[in-house]
Specification:
With 721 residues, the chain is of the alpha/beta class. Helix content is 46%, strand content 15%. β10, α17 and β11 form a beta-alpha-beta unit. The radius of gyration is 30 Å and the shape is elongated.
Length: 721
């Protein structure tokens, strides 16, 4: 059998009544490049015999058997067995429309999607009495608004939530298998409603998603399904676990603020279901759930307090203050319990949901105020929606995004998708290919054919600084932003920064970043990347914040007004490494109007082999030359005095870091000798050696600079190999 394009995973447990109809719906597909992974999950009826009969007739059908372990484990095992490029989950009592796989694979391959969502219809089994309570199910799997094009997962989630079209069913999505392997996302074992966790995580992790508003999936509603059967302690436990898992994920993954309303809506729904189930249990069942599943007990205690208070039971305190104290006491227990388990971040969301249930507005306001003192979230102005929605204008884009590229085969797809997912439409993306030796240029040209906002500018092999200058010369935007082609970006990066610049007539907008550490995918938020916390929150000039202005000298956390850059004549240095520091120091120092956006809008990727940071030995003096040029030109403009101390401190720290990161001894010696023979003096070190505040700021770097001045290379720490 040739390698399949799609693996259809079908968990089977006592499904003999409907199984043939389900399997036939796959066999009759107009698309033939599939495999069927059928897993018999300990069935006690004739399901296994049916599966084996079908497998003998078609070698694309693979059958596995296991002891009963539940739907989550069965699906996870199916993903391990799968060999296709894409995965589709099909329940053994449901069906696929005949053209499902053909339409879905064509779209997913064409748009290079991580996930493609689609619609479905619900049909009622013969003999099923569909009363009024199930009327809403008839349209449950229908998307209410058209969603064209390709969106990031976070943008897709936001769109589906706002249009009331979000569905958690794992069966309504075609998933790229490599994406699942890269993220490591799987179904939570041993619970019902496992789709809630899986679908949210996959959607918010995906870089490229699409939506196909065709009803490909046909779901059977029957009297003995999980949805229709009466709820017991298993359902309650599943709701509680889904709630805590999603809450912990939402906080630990540092999800963007714009998706949190949707996440909170899911949590409210899960908690409401838990309350409904718990309220319907008899005392023996309540005691059983709290005894059998201790992780549920504290949440359920809180629900009990709320329930009795709401119903006027004997436990209801006589005054609102008493209600507040009773519930707050339970919540404090819950928070302490969650912190002991290492998921204390969940407590904030648990608290919010339960406070909404109790109606204690005063405590909710206090919680909200505390939250906003801990972490800032950018609130766009009223004009932001208009900025985002403005159509693309080739001659007058709001912003020009400039990205140098050299051998970007491994990451360009993610970067392009991240740009195309931007909420702002009126932007141009200028990729300057620095004579790549792989297929980067072909990738860019194909992308440009599909998106007219993308422009490809080839140049002879030089460096990223020269490429950024080339892009600046071609730019037409009112604003320019220089990004790296191996990073990814928050969907609101351009909208938020342009909104801020327009509102305050700013020349420079500074924002924050975080780190995605590859290949393991670890997400980090170091303080040094949260530069806005130490800068003025109001509009300011560079000289007003000289002590904190040079915290990050990279190009990818600043938006510039293009007219300001051109008027001042700022250019990137054409050198192998550190070609961005001089430009950034000059642009920040000379600016009269700088504003910040307190949000992490760029995801900086580390750990890739072959990047400039890993090969700095080739040009050991580049960082030194950048600081030397900045001091020279600031002096020529007559403004060095305002920045002298801050610039000298930053230069000293940077030179020590350069020595520590150079891998080759000969490269370290070249820099060491330059610094010892007048280099540190030229960078302003003599002027800060006797300044007590500067000495305190430099810390260990001060002692190391003194060693450079006073020790022979062979005796220095850097000369020892």
């Amino acid at each position: 059998m040739e390698k399949p394009v799609v693996s259809v995973i079908i968990p089977v447990y006592n499904g003999e009544t409907y199984l043939k109809e389900c399997l036939d719906s796959v066999i009759r597909q107009s698309f033939s490049h599939w495999e069927m992974i059928c897993i018999n999950d300990g069935s006690t009826d004739g399901s296994l015999r049916i599966l084996e009969d079908f497998a003998r007739m078609d070698d694309r059908i693979r059958v596995f058997s296991q002891e009963n372990q539940g739907l989550s484990v069965t699906r996870n095992n199916g993903m391990q067995y799968a060999q296709g490029d894409y995965i589709l989950f099909l329940d053994c009592d449901d069906r696929l429309r005949q053209d499902t796989l053909a339409c879905l694979t064509e779209r997913a391959i064409r748009d290079q999607l991580d996930i493609l969502y689609f619609d479905g219809d619900i049909f009622f089994d013969d003999g099923f009495e569909a009363g009024e309570q199930f009327d809403g199910y008839r349209r449950l799997y229908h998307t209410k608004v058209p969603i064209p094009g390709t969106l990031s997962g976070t943008r897709m989630f936001q769109t589906l939530h706002e249009s009331k079209s979000y569905r958690s069913s794992a069966c309504l999505q075609l998933l790229r298998r490599a994406f699942l392997q890269e993220t490591g996302i799987a179904f939570y074992p041993g619970i019902l409603y496992e789709d809630n966790i899986f679908t949210l995580k996959t959607m918010l992790s995906a870089m490229r998603t699409g939506n196909y508003s065709e009803r490909f999936y046909e779901r059977r509603m029957r009297s003995d399904s999980i949805v229709t059967q009466s709820k017991d302690y298993r359902h309650l436990r599943s709701y509680v676990i889904a709630y805590t898992q999603i809450a912990a994920y939402a906080m630990d993954a540092k999800l963007p603020a714009e998706v949190m309303p949707g996440v909170r809506a899911i949590l409210r729904s899960l908690m409401a279901h838990a309350v409904d189930v718990f309220s319907a249990l008899d005392p023996q069942q309540r005691e059983k759930i709290t005894r059998t599943y201790p992780e549920s007990s504290l949440i359920l205690e809180t629900v009990t307090v709320w329930e009795k208070a709401a119903q006027g039971g004997a436990a209801q305190p006589t005054r609102p203050t008493g209600i507040r104290k009773a519930i707050t006491g339970k919540l404090q227990k819950l928070i302490a319990h969650l912190k002991e388990d290492g998921i204390g971040s969940t407590a904030v969301l648990c608290l919010k949901i339960l406070l909404e249930k109790t109606g204690i507005d005063k405590l909710r306001r206090r919680l909200r105020a505390k939250k906003h003192t801990k972490k800032h979230f950018y609130r766009p102005s009223r004009q932001a929606n208009g900025i985002a929605a403005a159509p693309y204008s080739p001659d007058a884009p709001f912003v020009s995004v400039i990205l140098p590229v050299h051998n970007g085969h491994d990451y360009l797809g993610d970067t392009i998708a991240s740009l195309q997912a931007q909420t702002m439409r009126n932007a141009e993306f200028l990729f300057v290919d620095d004579e790549s030796s792989d297929d980067s240029l072909e990738i860019l040209k194909r992308a440009a054919e599909q998106d007219r906002r993308i422009q490809v500018i080839p140049q002879k092999r030089s460096n990223a600084g020269a490429a950024r200058n080339r892009g600046l010369d071609a730019a037409k935007g009112k604003y320019v932003i220089f990004l790296d082609s191996d990073d990814t970006f928050d969907p609101n990066l351009l909208t938020y920064t342009v909104d801020r610049a327009e509102r305050y007539d700013a020349q420079v907008v500074i924002f924050n970043a975080d780190i995605l550490q590859l290949p393991e995918g670890t997400h980090l938020e170091p303080d040094w990347m949260n530069q806005t916390r130490v800068l003025p929150r109001k509009i300011f000039a560079g000289r007003d914040a000289a002590g904190h202005l040079y915290q990050m000298l990279n190009p990818w956390t600043k938006l510039y007004r293009r007219e300001y850059i051109l008027r001042e004549g700022f250019r990137y240095q054409s050198q192998y490494s550190t070609n961005d520091a001089y430009f950034t120091m000059m642009a920040l120092s000379c600016a009269e109007r700088i504003i910040t956006v307190p949000a992490r809008l760029v995801h900086y990727h580390t750990g890739r082999s072959g990047n400039i940071q890993s090969k700095k030995d080739r040009a050991p003096l580049d960082a030194y030359n950048a600081f030397l040029a900045a001091r020279r030109d600031l002096r020529a403009r007559g403004i060095l005095d305002a920045f002298d101390r801050a610039l000298a401190i930053k230069a000293a720290e940077s030179m020590i870091r350069e020595l520590n990161t150079q891998k080759k001894p000969e490269s370290r010696q070249i820099l060491y000798n330059a610094l010892q023979n007048g280099g540190l003096t030229a960078l302003g070190f003599d002027g800060i050696r006797q300044n007590s505040n500067a000495r305190k700021q430099l810390g260990e770097s001060l002692d190391q600079c003194e060693k450079i001045l006073n020790e022979d290379w062979s005796l220095s720490p850097w000369g020892q190999d």
